[in-house]
């Protein structure tokens, strides 16, 4: 058998081997590195892999740690955790619940709006789902909401942080696509390519995020008209209406100002994502101090939580680097290129197949696991086929939002199950997210058919 064929065969087997070990419950980072090292050893035996290629890994790791763009990740995580500890989400949920309570489906509408605001100011999915589950779910169930609708709205709204800036997923994807696009363009003879930045992805994701929020709101309003018993109104007592305007201003204005400061500075070209993230982190501490919620204990909890989440993501990234080196140098890139290039439909068919594969992987893998495995081996081929990198990144972001919603390993479902009442069946949570998964697919189809929804704002900002 030809060495090239042996290498490509081993690369394909390694990909499916990693999926198999992850399904068995092995830790992600160590599975990526361990299985890749094992297949690298097999490749050495057959003479299709040179172990000296591992010499590039230390420089890669140092590059990750010194990458100014990736410094934004722990800062945005810190901002999100600090805002969650300062109970801004709790005040928002309670106030918006009163504001929309007189409407059928009002509590559902308030959860979606608050979910979007928290996504734009925190981007931490776990904290958002848990907070809304603790506060809104009991209120919705007491009001007579259908448990399936209530749990579906909370899970879907809590995952908006995956796509609405400042999303940590978009930061990683922006950094990856920037490097891949430069390499692809240089290989095609374009030595002065238009750079792709995290700010471009943030701008591109803004309208798709609004689109998703609109689809969620439309579904709740549809349920309010067609099945009013599933989402009844919850009228606010007259004595609580007196200070409602002041409560609304107090709850809304601070997070809105923080959102404008962070996103506005990035989209306006005033600050880089890392600089804006530092402003957001300091702003979150100021908001906590204004609410008399800033203490050494809360600061310590926030720092520990930030370090834990950041370490988890970067360890997966380091394991994925080992996988990328072995897969690429055993000929996996050629295998993927031949497969995607020969699909019917050209580049559109190739993108559709990659989106379908990512959607299916979302049932069994986490978002970061998917982007660290799939993006490095598919993006070079897609960008070589002249796919717009910003459109591709945002499309992947919307697609992978479903990985938090789809069973059996949808983390949003686990977060909500952990704080939901014990008498609420898990089946209600699983059934509740189905309409929202379908709405995600509709959103992907719309963005697929109308790329301008993604590319219009970045091009407008770029002039």
UniProtKB/TrEMBL annotation:
InterPro entries: DctM, TRAP_DctM. Keywords: Cell inner membrane, Cell membrane, Membrane, Transmembrane, Transmembrane helix, Transport. One of its GO terms (molecular function) is transmembrane transporter activity. The chain crosses the membrane at residues 5-24, 30-49, 61-83, 107-137, 149-173, 201-222, 249-270, 276-294, 306-330, 350-383, 390-416, 436-457. Residues 17-452 form the TRAP C4-dicarboxylate transport system permease DctM subunit domain. It is found in: Cell inner membrane. It is a multi-pass membrane protein. One of its GO terms (cellular component) is plasma membrane. Belongs to the TRAP transporter large permease family. This is TRAP transporter large permease protein. It comes from Pseudooceanicola spongiae.
């Amino acid at each position: 058998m030809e060495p090239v064929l042996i290498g490509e065969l081993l690369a394909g087997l390694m990909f499916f081997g990693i999926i198999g070990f992850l399904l068995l419950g092995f830790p992600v980072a160590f599975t990526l590195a361990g299985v890749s090292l094992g297949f690298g050893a097999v490749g050495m035996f057959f003479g299709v892999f040179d172990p000296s290629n591992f010499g590039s890994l230390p420089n890669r790791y140092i590059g990750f740690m010194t990458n100014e763009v990736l410094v934004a990740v722990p800062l945005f995580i810190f901002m999100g955790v600090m805002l969650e500890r300062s109970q801004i989400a709790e005040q928002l949920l309670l106030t918006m619940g009163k504001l929309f309570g007189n409407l059928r489906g009002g509590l559902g509408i308030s959860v979606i709006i608050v979910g979007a605001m928290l996504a734009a100011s925190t981007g931490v999915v776990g904290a958002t789902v848990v907070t809304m589950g603790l506060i809104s779910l009991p209120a919705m169930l007491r009001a007579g909401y259908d448990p399936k609708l209530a749990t579906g709205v909370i899970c879907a709204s809590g995952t908006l942080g995956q796509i609405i800036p400042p999303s940590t997923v978009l930061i990683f994807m922006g950094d990856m696509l920037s490097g891949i696009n430069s390499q692809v363009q240089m290989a095609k003879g374009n030595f002065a390519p238009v750079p792709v930045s995290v700010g471009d992805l943030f701008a591109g994701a803004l309208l798709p995020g609004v689109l998703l929020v609109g689809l969620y709101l439309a579904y709740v309003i549809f349920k309010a008209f067609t099945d009013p018993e599933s989402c009844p109104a919850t009228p606010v007592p007259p004595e609580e209406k007196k200070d409602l305007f002041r409560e609304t201003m107090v709850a809304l204005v601070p997070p809105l100002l923080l959102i404008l400061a962070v996103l506005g500075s990035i989209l306006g070209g005033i600050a880089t994502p890392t600089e804006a993230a530092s402003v957001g982190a300091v702003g979150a501490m100021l908001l906590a101090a204004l609410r008399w919620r800033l203490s050494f204990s809360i600061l310590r909890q926030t720092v520990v939580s930030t370090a834990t989440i950041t370490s988890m993501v970067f360890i997966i990234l380091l394991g994925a680097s080992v996988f990328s080196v072995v897969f690429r140098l055993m000929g996996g890139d050629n295998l993927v290129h031949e497969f995607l290039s020969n699909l019917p439909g050209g580049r559109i068919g190739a993108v559709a197949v990659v989106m379908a594969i990512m959607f299916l992987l979302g049932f069994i893998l986490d978002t970061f696991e998917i982007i660290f495995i799939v993006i490095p081996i598919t993006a070079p081929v897609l960008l070589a086929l002249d796919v717009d990198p910003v459109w591709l990144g945002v499309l992947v972001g919307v697609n992978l939002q479903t990985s938090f919603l789809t069973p059996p390993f949808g983390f949003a479902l686990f977060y909500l199950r952990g704080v939901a009442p014990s008498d609420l069946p898990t089946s209600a949570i699983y059934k509740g997210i189905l309409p929202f998964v379908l709405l995600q697919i509709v959103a992907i189809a719309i963005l697929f058919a109308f790329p301008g929804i993604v590319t219009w704002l970045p091009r407008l900002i770029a002039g």
